């Protein structure tokens, strides 16, 4: 008796066996294809499972097996390559396969609803309708007219019938007589076409050639090109070629709401069906986009992280833009890196994958240097504009007003007077990061996190930027009842206030997640900025995400020092990426730009590196240091985290895990901890972590398997949750 091995959405790291649905013949069971959905009983619920294999027998006693209830798809909706990708991801990330498979399907299909082809609604004749003699229905002229239209064509769009003056009631009348029925119009696949691209400069042309020569099969490419060097133009021309071969292109970008420009460039270049996946899509829209990608009617699929799991009819090219961006790593649940999954997917789909960035991750640079990726460079700005010059602005002993030194204020002033734009970067939103009592020293802290509350003066609230908690701004110190409450430190709101006082006659735009709420906020801001009237832009990291500000000609980083002393081993890499990206916003339209870094540490090695070498050189230096310390990408990391209402239970769970696997670790692997996480208490939970280091991927994987197997057997008390994170981003 055959059994069905299914992936079931459950937190368990295993597959489940079921008997075939009642009434299905052995031949039908044998014909079931991998990936079809089945409705099955699971505990007290009914869930949607996905078929992995039909097996001759089960390891479970046959009497203990339950039959599946219903086959939901005659044919799988997902092809075997994508299924293989999911199985790989579940293995590699040691994540429950059911949760990985859930990433594949839109909600409607996860819920077990029937799969529907998409098309526009239309009407066609029934068999009975087709049998009517011409000229029938003479007593009902509207119905006769509708029949005539339906007789002339196989099917007619509902909208076309309506335009001809045929009301829904007339059509319902025909349906009641079983003469006509509703149907879906299959959309004819429109061929894609594109407007001519820019004529490429020699660097760009040789990259396009190299990719062309690499052929249509799998190859992996890193495009390291300075900001504004024409990477996007390369993407567009590669996509054009891909579409000409009748294939689809998948483009991952870090953040869609923030980069309306990128999207616009795609839409302007191609007359093709482009679908976009982003968090703002409603369920129905998401389903349509998914189905268009799957059926092949979409030519270009653009999306953020999770779009890497979009089914594609004929993938021909995968692009990961700003490949260094932290948002490609999912930080909770299924903790995958969309960039790494993209490379694996390209391998399985046998198509090229291109990772592009002005500031590639050390992981990708390392892969390129090791010859695993082809490495391409764009060293100059495409429009001929010079790269900005970077200077430290020593602020020691200087009087700072809202964080700005007099020298910076003067520099801004002269830019404004010259009709130019300035961008100020301050990576802290709100008014001030601390509220303190001047009399007793009390500091406003979050009740649920090890964190201070940020003062938001305009909303008159204290807010926690880690758990979202918020309360009204107190008038008095809760401790000593003094009214001498001081806002300490600096946030964008405060600097904005100062700028408005000082530069009131010019427009000032604050760009942070508080001010940029709403779908079109960024879009209308960009329209304003692109007029290139003199103004000041003040913002957080949001400003660095792939925007072009052609009129910006001075960039200043207000609090560079905040980045200098990160505890994480990636701190320096992130600083170099962020500063290079911020700097890259300057001087794109001809005039050479200037970047000023305000600092108290002009001689700090990371500062000097920033001033004296470009990103590529800094990255190679850092890579040598990673090699010396065995940190990624030279070595491999895994983190097991515990999350518990009780700090001691979390630590002791990880301590027991440590002791259980310690004796049995593969050679070269080592455990560090357990230690409290960088922010131990967050949203009321205590977090601890156990870190595993390994010299190579195979050792790391072997160790991860042991950690998971051991953790599964340890009792988790007090609501403790544990998770494993392969190739974690934030560790120390
Ligand atoms: P990146 O993606 O590297 O930031 P873009 O592709 O956006 O660079 O190009 C930066 C600017 O240079 C854009 O305004 C673009 O239109 C222009 N550009 C790109 N390639 C060329 C080219 N070959 N000739 C002229 N201008 C170009
Ligand atoms: Zn006080
Ligand atoms: Zn909090």
Distance between the termini: 53 Å
Number of helices: 23
**Main structural class:** alpha/beta
- Quick one: biggest sheet? 7 strands, parallel
Strand content: 15-25%
Give the distinct bound molecules. Answer: adenosine-5'-diphosphate, zinc ion
- Averaging pLDDT over every residue, what do you get? 89
Characterization of the model:
This protein is α/β, with parallel strands linked by helices and 732 residues long. It has 23 helices and 34 strands. Helix content is 32%, strand content 24%. Strands 13-14-11-15-16-10-17 form a seven-stranded parallel β-sheet, with helices on both faces. A six-stranded parallel β-sheet has the order 18-30-29-21-28-27, sandwiched between helices. Helix 2 runs antiparallel to helix 13. The chain is globular, with a radius of gyration of 30 Å. The structure holds adenosine-5'-diphosphate (ADP) and zinc ion (2 copies).
Short description:
By secondary structure, the protein is an alpha/beta fold. It contains 23 helices and 34 strands.
Please tag this protein with its features:
732 residues; 7-stranded parallel beta sheet; binds zinc ion; 6-stranded parallel beta sheet; alpha/beta; 23 helices; binds adenosine-5'-diphosphate
């Amino acid at each position: 008796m055959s059994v069905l091995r299914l992936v079931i959405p459950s937190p368990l790291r295993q597959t489940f066996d079921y008997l075939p649905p009642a009434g299905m013949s052995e031949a039908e069971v044998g014909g079931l294809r991998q990936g079809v959905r089945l409705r099955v009983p699971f505990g007290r619920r009914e869930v949607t499972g996905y078929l992995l294999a039909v097996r001759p027998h089960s390891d479970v006693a046959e009497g203990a097996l339950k039959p599946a209830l219903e086959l939901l798809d005659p044919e799988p909706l997902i092809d075997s390559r994508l299924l293989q990708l999911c199985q790989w991801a579940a293995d590699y990330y040691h994540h429950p396969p059911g949760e990985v498979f859930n990433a594949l399907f839109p909600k409607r299909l996860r819920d077990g609803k029937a799969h529907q082809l998409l098309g526009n609604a239309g009407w066609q004749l029934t068999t009975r309708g087709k049998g009517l003699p011409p000229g029938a229905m003479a007593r009902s002229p509207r119905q006769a007219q509708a029949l005539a239209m339906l007789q002339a064509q196989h099917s007619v769009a509902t909208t076309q019938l309506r335009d001809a003056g045929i009301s829904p009631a007339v059509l319902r009348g025909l349906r009641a007589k079983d003469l006509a029925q509703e149907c879906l119009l299959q959309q004819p696949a429109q061929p894609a076409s594109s407007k001519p691209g820019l004529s490429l400069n020699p660097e760009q042309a040789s990259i396009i050639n190299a990719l062309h020569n690499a052929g249509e099969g799998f190859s992996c490419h890193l495009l390291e090109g300075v900001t504004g060097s024409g990477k996007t133009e390369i993407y567009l021309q590669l996509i054009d070629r891909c579409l000409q071969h009748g294939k689809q292109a998948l483009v991952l970008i870090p953040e869609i709401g923030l980069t309306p420009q990128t999207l616009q460039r795609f839409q302007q270049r191609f007359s093709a069906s482009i679908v976009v996946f982003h968090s703002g899509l409603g369920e129905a829209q998401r389903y349509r986009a998914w189905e268009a990608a799957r059926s092949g009617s979409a030519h270009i699929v653009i999306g953020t992280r999770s779009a890497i799991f979009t089914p594609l009819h004929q993938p021909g090219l995968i692009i990961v833009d700003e490949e260094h961006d932290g948002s490609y790593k999912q930080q909770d649940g299924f903790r995958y890196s969309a960039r790494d999954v993209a490379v694996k997917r390209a391998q399985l789909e046998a198509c090229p994958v291109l990772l592009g960035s002005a500031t590639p991750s050390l992981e990708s640079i390392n892969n390129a240097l090791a010859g695993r990726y082809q490495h391409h460079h764009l060293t100059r700005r495409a429009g001929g504009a010079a790269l900005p010059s970077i200077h430290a602005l020593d602020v020691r002993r200087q009087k700072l007003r809202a964080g700005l030194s007099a020298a910076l204020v003067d520099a801004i002033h002269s830019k404004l007077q010259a009709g130019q734009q300035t961008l100020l970067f301050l990576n802290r939103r709100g008014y001030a990061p601390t509220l303190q009592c001047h009399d007793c020293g009390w500091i406003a802290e979050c009740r649920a996190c090890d964190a201070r509350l940020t003062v938001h003066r305009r909303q008159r609230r204290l807010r926690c930027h880690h758990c979202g908690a918020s309360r009204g701004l107190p008038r008095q110190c809760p401790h000593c009842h003094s009214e001498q409450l001081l806002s300490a430190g600096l946030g964008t709101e405060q600097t904005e206030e100062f700028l408005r006082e000082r530069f009131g006659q010019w427009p000032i735009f604050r760009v942070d997640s508080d001010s940029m709420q709403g779908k079109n906020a960024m879009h209308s801001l960009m329209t304003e900025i692109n007029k290139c009237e003199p103004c000041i832009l003040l913002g957080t990291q949001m400003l660095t995400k792939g925007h072009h500000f052609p009129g910006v000609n001075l960039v200043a980083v207000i609090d560079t020092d905040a980045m200098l002393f990160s505890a994480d081993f990636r701190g320096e890499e992130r600083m170099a990426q962020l500063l290079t990206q911020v700097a890259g916003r300057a001087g794109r339209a001809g005039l050479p730009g200037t970047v000023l870094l305000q600092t108290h540490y002009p001689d700090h090695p990371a500062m000097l590196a920033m001033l004296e070498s470009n990103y590529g050189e800094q990255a190679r230096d850092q890579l040598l240091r990673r090699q010396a310390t065995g940190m990624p990408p030279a070595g491999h990391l895994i983190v097991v985290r515990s999350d518990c209402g009780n700090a001691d239970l979390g630590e002791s769970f990880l301590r027991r895990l440590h002791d259980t696997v310690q004796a049995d670790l593969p050679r070269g692997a080592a455990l560090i901890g357990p230690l409290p996480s960088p922010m131990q208490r967050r949203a009321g939970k205590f977090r601890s972590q156990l870190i595993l280091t390994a010299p190579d991927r195979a050792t790391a994987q072997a160790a991860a398997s042991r950690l998971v197997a051991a953790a599964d057997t340890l009792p988790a008390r007090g609501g403790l949750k544990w998770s494993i994170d392969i190739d974690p981003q934030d560790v120390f």
